[in-house]
Amino acid sequence: MDKEVENKKLKKALDRFKECNQKDTSYLSFLSSLTKTVDANVFYLKTVCNNDPDVYYDRYFRTKKPVKAHTVVYVDFTVGYPKELRYGHWAYVYRVLNGKALVIPLVSIKNYRRNLREQELEVVLVNKGFLTPSIMRLDEMKWIDIQRIDMGKDIPENIQTPVEVIKEKVKEFLKL
Questions:
Q1: pTM tops 0.90, yes or no
Q2: In angstroms, what CA-CA distances link 83 with 88, 140, 163?
Q3: pLDDT of residue 61
Q4: Beta carbons within 10 angstroms of residue 80's beta carbon
Q5: Facing residues of 164 across strands?
Q6: How much is the mean pLDDT over the chain?
Q7: CA–CA distance, 137 with 156 (Å, rounded to integer)
Q8: What radius of gyration do the chain's Cα atoms show?
Q9: Phi then psi dihedrals of residue 135, to 5 deg
Q10: Is 78 left (phi over 0), alpha (psi -120 to 50) or beta?
């Protein structure tokens, strides 16, 4: 495909994206999200796989500090489909396995809202010494590649809500 056709397709995609007319959508956020995804794949192929595409699914990226279950990390969920959580959020790490983490995104409480839906659990984090309530979005739980975790972002020191409470709510939500 020649450059002119590629540029037309890109412009059309960006124009369609702009049609969303959401307050948090912009060319910059869309391109930033796309660029991060491309950069992550290039990094993985060059660094982790030593430029050998045959081992792409057999190798695992390792973070500088190990990602542990029952901690909070900052995750870039990139641009998603409508009603999916997007961009960067704190997330609770439920489990870590083979270079992936099962995370449950956390969102801030808006306007002191406390009427939780069945897919939500209010948790308390210790952030810079302060107790910070947050909402755990169980309906957004997903396995992510640990490359999505931004180790450079500030994260809460710990989660005050007992692990047993979280596990029980997950079990109840998944009807296990």
A1: no
A2: 15, 10, 28
A3: 64
A4: 12
A5: none
A6: 81
A7: 17
A8: 19
A9: -105, 125
A10: left
Closest CA to 103 of 127, 128, 79, 138: 138
Tokens of 20: 């969303």
> What is the CA 50 to chain-centroid distance, rounded?
26
**SS3 for 120?**
strand
Task: Determine the 3-state secondary structure of 123 from DSSP.
Answer: strand
Determine the Cα–Cα distance for residues 36 and 72; give it in Å rounded to an integer: 21
The pLDDT tens digits of the residues spanning 20-47 come to: 655 555 666 667 777 777 777 777 677 7
Euclidean distance between CA atoms 80 and 157, whole angstroms: 28
* Rounded distance between C-alpha atoms, residue 19 and residue 136, angstroms: 30
Is the confidence at residue 93, as pLDDT, over 80? yes
Residue whose structure tokens are 């009603």: 83
Distance CA 63, CA 124 (A): 26
The amino acid occupying position 78 is T
61 compared with 162, residue with greater pLDDT: 162
Non-local CB neighbours of 62 within 8 Å, separated by 6+ positions:
99
Which two structure tokens, joined as six digits, stand for 62? 């390792």
One-letter-per-residue 3-state SS of 48-102: HCCCCHHHCCCCCCCCCCCCCCCCEEEEECCCCCCCCCCCEEEEEEEEEECCEEE
